[in-house]
Amino acid sequence: MRLVVVGAGGRMGRMLIRAVAETEGCTLSGAIEREGAPVLGQDAGVLAGLAPLGVAVTDDPLPVFAAAEGVLDFTTPAATTFFAELAAQARIVHVVGTTGMDEADLAKLAAAAHHARIVRSGNMSLGVNLLAGLVRKVSAALGEDFDIEIVEMHHRMKVDAPSGTALLLGEAAAEGRGVALSDTRVSTRDGHTGARRPGDIGFATLRGGTVVGDHSVVFAGAGERLTLSHHAEDRGIFARGAVRAAQWAFDRPPGLYSMADVLGL
Ligand SMILES: NC(=O)C1=CN([C@@H]2O[C@H](COP(=O)(O)OP(=O)(O)OC[C@H]3O[C@@H](n4cnc5c(N)ncnc54)[C@H](OP(=O)(O)O)[C@@H]3O)[C@@H](O)[C@H]2O)C=CC1
Ligand SMILES: O=C(O)C1=N[C@H](C(=O)O)C[C@H](O)C1
């Protein structure tokens, strides 16, 4: 499968180039960065710490998308909505790992999915998607006597909060209870907050150092506490998940899919 990596110079972009190069049946057919990026013109393989792959990083996605079968996109919400339109026009698979997208961004992805095969997830790892299933079950089993708090920590460069993974886990917890996360979500607490409202799903965000991604879902009851956690140690888990998602989506009809669909969970 001929795959393009957009945001090629980023932390995930470089991991994605490596994952494509290491996956049998996949080739890197293009690498895109934004206009003016310092890595333009560099060989994508060298950029990712590999031998040269003969693919130069460019800021012109049109000819690159036209010659590809899929695009792996871990960039920014603005870039992802732009690439979604191009991927839909080119009728290629679009794997979206970008987080921090708002309702308007998601509506644009849904529109593009009428023509494109889009796989989107706040976390492309097997472990987190299994964890989401466990959270859904535990949340359903325990009910509202147990308060749910989601704690996440990421590296100091992360720009969005709560993380896409925390929100994915929050959605799973809310589904387990049969409620909407939008009605129960509490993402900030400061000052005299009053007592915790029954049924709230709380989020706490920590940022610092080089943490790849830690998530815990705490179920706190009267006299006991259950915690389900995932610790990402290497960004390779997200990159390999993204390549797997692209291969899975190759022969699917247009639509918006999740990593749970890819993994058959
Ligand atoms: N779903 C998942 O499993 C995972 C999701 N993520 C998410 O992926 C996203 C990226 O994370 P990370 O790699 O750490 O971030 P980085 O900032 O390191 O990488 C993003 C890259 O995209 C580039 N970029 C921005 N705009 C454009 C554009 N218009 N065209 C081409 N390239 C562009 C940036 O360039 P520049 O810096 O020059 O602006 C940068 O190189 C985040 O939203 C993060 O939360 C991360 C890991 C796993
Ligand atoms: O920005 C990151 O680094 C990560 N982002 C994703 C998120 O927002 O959950 C996934 C992973 O935790 C790393």
Automatic annotation (TrEMBL):
Its EC number is 1.17.1.8. It catalyses: (S)-2,3,4,5-tetrahydrodipicolinate + NADP(+) + H2O = (2S,4S)-4-hydroxy-2,3,4,5-tetrahydrodipicolinate + NADPH + H(+); (S)-2,3,4,5-tetrahydrodipicolinate + NAD(+) + H2O = (2S,4S)-4-hydroxy-2,3,4,5-tetrahydrodipicolinate + NADH + H(+). Coiled coil: none annotated. (S)-2,3,4,5-tetrahydrodipicolinate binds at residues 155, 164-165. It comes from the Bacteria. NAD(+) binds at residues 7-12, 97-99, 121-124. Gene3D superfamilies: Dihydrodipicolinate Reductase, domain 2, NAD(P)-binding Rossmann-like Domain. CDD domains: DHDPR_N. Catalyzes the conversion of 4-hydroxy-tetrahydrodipicolinate (HTPA) to tetrahydrodipicolinate. This is 4-hydroxy-tetrahydrodipicolinate reductase. The lineage of its organism: Bacteria, Pseudomonadati, Pseudomonadota, Alphaproteobacteria, Hyphomicrobiales.
